[in-house]
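Two proteins, back to back. First:
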Amino acid sequence: MKAIRINGLHKSFGPVKAVNGLDLEVPQGICLGLLGPNGAGKSTTMRLLTGQAVADSGEMEVLGYRLPEDGKQARARMGVVPQLDNLDIDVTVEQNLTIFARLYRVEDVPGAVDRALRLARLSDRRDYAVENLSGGMRRRLLLARGLVHEPELLLLDEPTVGLDPQIRTELWTLIDALRTSGTTILMSTHYIEEAERLADEVALMAGGRIIARASPAELIAEHAGQVTAEVYAPPQRLLEIRRSAEAAGLSVRPAGPAVAIVGIERAGSWDVPEGAIRRASSLEDVFVLLTGEEAE
């Protein structure tokens, strides 16, 4: 049984097609990263899976339950960490978790709360009011809340958006521990490094559908090759280099003040410009080539 099965899913908001014929399957026991630019349809997909939005057409199945018909049973077995902080600030950390443990009808509520606090490294903050927590601690509490009932499937919607790099790395450690333990995770993100570090497979999303999917290494090998050359020069010179490389059949993408010529081992007789900086091709190269947008 697949943890998630989606076929031909459509969802529009007025003239905007947020999800446009999405097909997606998530096997049990892996972390799948939904990677894409803002507006690609990632968060809408998450809302459809959690019942916060209703699809215009298509089929969805989560843990063997059809959505939206069997949404209540499916949600009982999944955990959700939303993009936006929706914690109750009028109670303590422990009380937040206790409320959710009871909502999910956990048999041993104190034990479940203790486990979630340990997992999120918040045991020493159990009596703190939520409003007194730092941003990073609040994100850890959101993660603990989503895990308090030990779900089979965890949905992470942009789990580290807006956090500074140090706090983001702390959350990555927690998520990676879950992935390693065998929890099935669907994680939406627009951070390249987040997808590369945490996901067993990456599904690149644009225009409301999946445009490429494989492990990070496989995506790089297929779309970006082995070596990329970055060239820094005045704009007119960069334009000339780009035209020349593309005429030779090479893929070229913008790279801030430079251009990146991707997969130069395929250059044949074309000469790589003098002074070009050679590096290993990356998932960022794939992201920009396939979506046409700069990465974060």
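And the second protein:
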Amino acid sequence: MGDEKLPTKSSRDEVQAFLKKVAATPMRVPAGERGRLIFAMDATASREPTWDRASQLQGAMFQETSALGGLEIQLAYYRGFGEFKATKWMTDSDALLRQMSGVFCLAGETQIRKVLRHAVQETKKKRVNAVVFVGDCVEEDVDKLGHVAGELGILGVPVFVFQEGRDAVAEFAFKQIAHLTNGAHCRFDADSPQTLRELLEAVAVYAAGGRRALENFARQRGGAVLQIAHQVKRG
């Protein structure tokens, strides 16, 4: 999907701004409970390289949250002609890797509204702390997406959107979703897997332990995440 040329390098300013937004988003996980994160991806044909990359990086999300009481992740994806699927909730990286490795990408149109609607339904059953969505294209009515995103916002479920590439229509829609859910939007470079890893880790830590956990994580890891934590403290 989309023929936009990918940026030659990731913007550190964008990554830092995204992490700052994550850190500033209020969230609390009840004592004794795991954070719950829906990890949603576009699995249409153009997404195959990023799907493979995310499969390799997903273990970091569990690793970084283990000391916080762990994380439950549900994989959701769409592909082909109207196909949308969501897995059971998983608590270890091996299970998630098996699920992701069994998925192959198929050409089709975007179904982001189904992702958002599913998140609404899931959090009505049991609290979902955050949604991550990775994609590059939007082929749906933005107002309809905004309506469901607004429902998630009312329920207190932030959506953190990772956009690959620079498609202007997608960027507008993704920013609307992030705004309406009190989440955040960030573009990343397909050639910089470390950036995607950093973003996934940050949101996973946030989903498992909230803002304080992210600040502690920043002190341990340093780099861009540490810079953001310092900016938040000064804000």
